[in-house]
Amino acid sequence: MKRVSVLGAGGWGTALTVHLRRVGHQVRLWARDPELAVDLATRRANPVYLPDVTLPAGIDVTHVLAQAVADTDLIVLAIPSHGCRAVVRAAARHMASGVVLVSAAKGLEADTMLRMSDVVAQEVGRRHPVVVLSGPSFAMEVAHQLPTAVLAASSDSRAMALVQAEFRAPYFRLYGSDDVIGVEIGGAMKNVIAIAAGVVEGLGLGHNALAALITRGLAEVTRLACAAGGRRETLAGLSGLGDLVVTCTGTLSRNRHVGIELARGRSLADILAGMKMIAEGVRTTGAALALGARYGVELPIATQMAEVLAGRTDVRTALDALMLRRQRSETESV
């Protein structure tokens, strides 16, 4: 049994907390909001994000960050990308040297274009191995013990093996990878493509259009990942194609929901105001375009989604812009 701390009491953080307790670990969950922490401890459920999932006995809840990360073996960072740096910076001084950090967020830092593991590494230095947890994994399904396969990616093989061993369950399988760049770019970019998939769904454009969007989206994600130093085969796996498929087609996808509502004519501000959870693709789109510009990589789907999200164009015009681009070989620039 390990002592595990989970930072972030959203849907994914709560689901991982429940999962880790079920496999036998002593788990401590940190919620930024003191009122939510009290509610979680009292109700033994997350009334905001996973109301129908009971927190098993043996899970402690706190809003005190120093208490959350003290005397622990593993720290899971289930914090939205825009809040990751501040939380890790505040927690770093309280972490024991050598504790393995598991980055479970999918996104890019808006101002720096950094992947989450890079953000974490900047704040903690070399004192802590970092393992990225990514792949097709809706929080609700993991919490309900539905079969799920994900990746544990790290340059530290021992830390990666530790996470594979300690997170494994009959319904939760982890593959290993040392391609951290490819895994994280895939996990971040699929959210952008999923917004476009939602637009296709919301406009009622059919299965042909959705299949084309997912396929060309994968090509777009692969171009950027490879330019950044990732490996092409990684994007054909769980953190690329797998995550892209589930996020573009699943009814639990927040980013797909944003696209559907945009297609129905709602403003982005109105859509986000009505959502309890974060749609990472909204924040990632601009950072992805900036990263593409750095590497000289064309990202046509992300470009059109950025125009739609900024209110500079409508979804129909964005679709026309994609369909009327110069025709080319399917493998050109891929």
Provide a descriptive summary of the structure in words:
This protein is α/β, with parallel strands linked by helices and 334 residues long. It folds into two domains: 3-178, Rossmann fold (3-Layer(aba) Sandwich); 184-323, Orthogonal Bundle (N-(1-d-carboxylethyl)-l-norvaline Dehydrogenase, domain 2). 53% of the residues lie in helices and 14% in strands. It contains 16 helices and ten strands. Strands 5-2-1-6-7-8-9-10 form an eight-stranded mixed sheet, with helices on both faces. Helix 8 (180-202) runs parallel beside helix 11, helix 8 (180-202) runs parallel beside helix 12 (254-263) and helix 8 packs across helix 14 (280-295). The longest helix has 23 residues, at 180-202. The protein starts with a strand and ends in an 11-residue tail after the last helix. The relative contact order is 0.11.
Order of helices and strands: EHEHEEEHEHEHEHEHEHHHHHHHHH
Distance between the termini: 45 Å
**In order across it, which strands form the biggest sheet?**
5-2-1-6-7-8-9-10
The CATH topology assignment of the largest domain is Rossmann fold
Q: Which value, in Å, is the CA radius of gyration?
A: 19 Å
Fraction in helix: 40-55%
The CATH superfamily of the largest domain turns out to be NAD(P)-binding Rossmann-like Domain
Q: Please tally the β strands and state the result.
A: 10
Task: Profile the largest sheet.
Answer: 8 strands, mixed
CA-based shape: globular
